[in-house]
Amino acid sequence: MKLIVWITVLPVVFALTITIPRAPDENAPFVSKSLISFSIEQDRWPDWAGSSFFLNTLENIRGITGAPPDIRIGANSEDKTNFSFDVKYAEALFPAPSATVPYPEATNITVGNGFYQLIQRMPRGTHVTWGVPLGPLNATAAVLEAKAIMNAFNSPVCKAAGITLDYLEIGNEADLYKNNGFRPSSYSSSQYVQEWTALATNVSNAVKLSKTGTKFLVGSFAGSSSKTTGFSPQAIYSEGVLESEPGSLIAAFSEHHYSGSFCAGNGGLLSDLMTKSTIRTNITIYTTDVEATHARGLDYILGETNSYACHGAPGVSNTAGAALWGLDYALFSTQIGISQVFFHVGIGFKYNLIQPISLTRSILDGSPLPSPSPPHVQPLYYANVIAAELRGSQAKVQISEISIDHPQIAGYVAFEGSKLVRAVFINSKAFFAESANRTSVHLDFALDGPSPPRTMTIKRLAIGHADDVSGLTWGGQTYETENGKVRGKLSLEVQHVADGVDIAETEVILVNFARGYL
Ligand SMILES: *[C@@H]1O[C@H](CO)[C@@H](O)[C@H](O)[C@H]1NC(C)=O
Ligand SMILES: *[C@@H]1O[C@H](CO)[C@@H](O)[C@H](O)[C@H]1NC(C)=O
Ligand SMILES: *[C@@H]1O[C@H](CO)[C@@H](O)[C@H](O)[C@H]1NC(C)=O
Ligand SMILES: *[C@@H]1O[C@H](CO)[C@@H](O)[C@H](O)[C@H]1NC(C)=O
Ligand SMILES: *[C@@H]1O[C@H](CO)[C@@H](O)[C@H](O)[C@H]1NC(C)=O
Ligand SMILES: *[C@@H]1O[C@H](CO)[C@@H](O)[C@H](O)[C@H]1NC(C)=O
């Protein structure tokens, strides 16, 4: 590596020459317009559905890719949800907040038809997964909820807006039922398969699932043994989950994943979360599960994921560094065949992409805020925007990771048809407020093939420090506005490809090689 002197505000410590392919290789995955999607803790779904701020942040993404993020509603409270015709929306019981859990989840929630009808408020074209309980083994509740869900989606409003139920999910993280009181310690995946099949039979008979486009997704496990023993896709496939009548309606396997947990009040380090190599090892543990799932003709998604379990780690999950983590994590997931990544959110959770309503307690320690904090985006939302801009709005876009032999620089390239259009680069070295001088890496691009592009446009995610919680700008613009819509003058740099580009510690750049911009 050569040390070069570059005219810039930041000292360039070294340069990298990056070979950018001009055409996708045959295995390059086609990437969903809704790669980054939302998983919503359902105990406070009415707060999400009622937030025009939330809707604006979804519409922002639709404006970029042509499709809003998908949403999955359920999670932990899905297994604590009962149904009553006497309840309009929802009645829930919440434990007292604590410093570790400032916004606890409901221990008990009873919902009525109106709860599900709120789906009408979502943007046109929203695709949805909704969960019904398996934990309490109450078929009556599961069936009443499934009927209410189907009725909500069959409404003229949903039909006209193309708001579609892709999947019903039955039960959340059944592999943890033996730890949380739903099942004895002997609970196994074969019992899960029996229970799932019985309840799915009830549900599919009651809502005539086979006559609709809605399918089941299965799994939603918190972890995976990746073997035919323990809980894993391999185990439940070998135990026949796909062979029953409702099993024939399974179209996807959902895995849940967190990089660590804050459940006991102990978070990881932001610098570890952002590290290129740990992002890759967190995802590649699922390679064999993805292959086993694709071999059955099913889609494989991370149906619930985020940085640190139990709502995130303070000073880590809510920071700018988490945006770099989330972007690399979601894009890398596509490279092993994961089709979508649903980032989990709840009211007041630390790892949210956005906070959709005013909060009166600190998300970090539960202390009362001097004045309510209005709805706002958190840094992780920028990962959603940037992934969407890399993907773009064409029907078929392939994204490949660029091979970069360096521990702090990651890159991905997007192709429309077979044409190179854009690339994104992430410098994941954490630059903290107390760090020494911030350095840059100079990237030189080698573009092979005939008539390579000569100019490029650069868009930067500007970040003060990795541990900042606000003040980010994307191409000079901000989403930190009162309504969640972008504001400010777009600022791009146009450069000769031959000159390369600098990327600072804790920075993302989007390089557009196509003529014009976006
Ligand atoms: C469900 O609701 C019924 C009636 O409201 C109640 O008796 C029952 O305990 C509830 N079940 C759960 C698991 O909350
Ligand atoms: C099962 O759910 C139904 C409908 O919500 C409720 O009426 C019933 O009490 C529940 N049973 C139990 C044992 O919780
Ligand atoms: C849940 O709340 C309902 C009323 O909202 C109550 O009838 C039921 O007993 C509660 N169940 C549990 C398990 O606390
Ligand atoms: C679920 O299916 C079982 C077995 O067919 C049946 O006995 C039970 O009544 C069904 N329950 C509901 C709520 O549909
Ligand atoms: C996942 O990432 C975290 C850092 O956020 C790291 O501590 C952990 O070891 C990684 N897990 C795997 C399986 O690589
Ligand atoms: C930081 O930059 C200043 C000014 O260029 C320099 O004097 C100082 O030695 C640098 N510190 C480190 C730790 O590199």
From TrEMBL:
InterPro entries per UniProt: GH (IPR017853), GH79_Enzymes (IPR052974), GlcAase_C (IPR031728)
SUPFAM superfamilies listed in its UniProt record: (Trans)glycosidases
Keyword Signal on entry: yes
Pfam families: Glyco_hydro_79C (PF16862)
Gene3D superfamilies: Glycosidases
GO molecular function: hydrolase activity
Domain Beta-glucuronidase C-terminal per the UniProt entry, residue ranges: 411-510
Keywords noted in UniProt: Hydrolase, Signal
Signal peptide: 1-15
Keyword Calcium in record: no
Protein's name according to its UniProt entry: Glycoside hydrolase family 79 protein
UniProt source species: Favolaschia claudopus
